[in-house]
Fold this protein.
Amino acid sequence: MQTTTSTHDLHTHSTASDGTLSPAGLVERAHALGVSVLALTDHDSLGGLEAAAASACTLGVDLVPGIELSVTWEKRLLHVVGLKIDPTHGPLIEGIARLAGIREARAEKMGAHLDKRGIPGAYAGARALAGGGMLTRTHFARYLAGQGHAPDVGAVFKHYLVRGKPGYVKTDWAALDEAVGWIRGAGGTAVLAHPLRYRMTRAWMDRTLAAFIEAGGTSIEVVYGSNTPQDNHAAATYARRFGLSGSVGSDFHSPDVPWTALGRLPALPGDITPVWQTW
Ligand code: AMP
Ligand code: MN
Ligand code: MN
Ligand code: MN
């Protein structure tokens, strides 16, 4: 892995989903930290792209329109980042309207389950924290942490919001071929996000990547904010073995979370084709 810092960051969040900075605030911070090519990739939402583009235009940042889609494949959760998408593409807009409905129904169930366990008002609290943005588990976590149910957001996830815990609700997101199809239909590139976070065996990752490529995916996130150097190396190996281009993304959500590496990502290994060179 080269030690130079990447000027590209192709995975970030704003208040349009579970980030804490406004789209314009995110672009300003990225610019100040030396990012010259930035993708805004909110969860199942295009809502921040217009404001981000306006800010990027003023500052001279190259803003790549993006999204991070929630996918269920073989009962597993995958995240597929779409880059350089046309945000006016009808099937993409209809697809994320469906995901928004799924998120709303899930959030109501999460609230009801937590209510039964003696934690009232979680749905309303999370809804208020999300503002007009896409409602996520992160908003529940922030609300519960704020109410003193756990010391921090990470502890709320661990005790309440992951599989087997009271606030967890099994959810069927978009199918893999649907999500990749929406991205490609919108003229975009589909990137398998944070492959090392799925904690899959190599055999499962091979199956996942075969299905992703079959669906039309062409890129994998090689350099990722919370990756160790070994994780970056492992992801690069998947890119080489499957002939995928490589993406670079911090998954920045908030300046309050120290591990989010906005503006501090290492460059891709020299033999990996950067996803932006395929555009
Ligand atoms: P959702 O898509 O609504 O299920 O929310 C997923 C989001 O929750 C991810 O994008 C992360 O931002 C956040 N998240 C997931 N797991 C954790 C965790 N263990 N600690 C903190 N945040 C998490
Ligand atoms: Mn998130
Ligand atoms: Mn993700
Ligand atoms: Mn993300």
